Known about the structure:
Layout: H1 16-21, H2 23-26, H3 32-40, E1 43-47, H4 51-63, E2 67-71, H5 96-107, E3 112-116, H6 125-129, E4 134-137, H7 142-155, E5 159-165, E6 168-174, H8 183-187, H9 197-200, H10 204-223, E7 232-237, E8 242-247
Parallel strand pairs: 1-2, 1-4, 2-3, 4-5
Antiparallel strand pairs: 5-6, 6-7, 7-8
Helix pairs in contact: 4-5, 4-10
Amino acid sequence: MNPGCQTVSGTSLLSDAELLRYHRQINLKGWDLSGQEALKVARVLVIGLGGLGCAAAQYLAAAGVGQLTLLDGDKVEHSNLARQVLHQDDRVGQYKVHSAATALRALNPYVQLLALPEYADEVMLPVYLAEQDLVLDCTDHRASRELINLCCRAAGVPLVSGSAIRGEGQLSVFTWGQNEPCYHCLSRLFTEPDASCVVNGVLGPVVGMVGSLQALEALKLITGIGQPLCGELLLIDGLSLEFQRLRLPRDPECRVCGSAEHRLL
């Protein structure tokens, strides 16, 4: 996705303070100044500011993503605080997007933040996607993930999807290339389609691990560094610390990305 940002009239898009702040990243081979400038102009939508979104958003903000849009209609509850690291006791009752924005502004004042205290729906989500370069799905409901997948594919906006439950996590990246799968190709295989953290519980560090990996995949897509997890599924077992990386096949009968006679779009 790296647009190969160039300097304007020989001047960097970054201030001297930003060049110092991001110096260790800029030194990375393949990242360089052009990668940091690509982050500076990037627009990323984070949907869900729970455990995954908190972990992902803080690393995106710290890395220097220019504009972060935060979308979530939930409010902070005491039961969130063990794993949702941007929230704290004195912000219980606030919308999660406002609480997260407060923490992210303190973390990096150079990032533009837009907090939207609402849920993703089929009406407004396409409107928001028109202004984004990349989406992170950090929600915890299958219905939301299916909608986000459908809308992102329709808009052609790359999607980094993560989830976690109990001590397990998974991660996928969808860029809508020819013959690449979509989230629905994966979700049709679920044996527990409606599993909930409320019922099954979840380990905070596992949520943080998956959210951090979502941020890593987003940075790779934006800067062009490394090899993103496109068309693959990463499975994480936090209790045994085992990882599996699997090729995710496209379902030709998928209602989102399958052949024309099967698609909803």
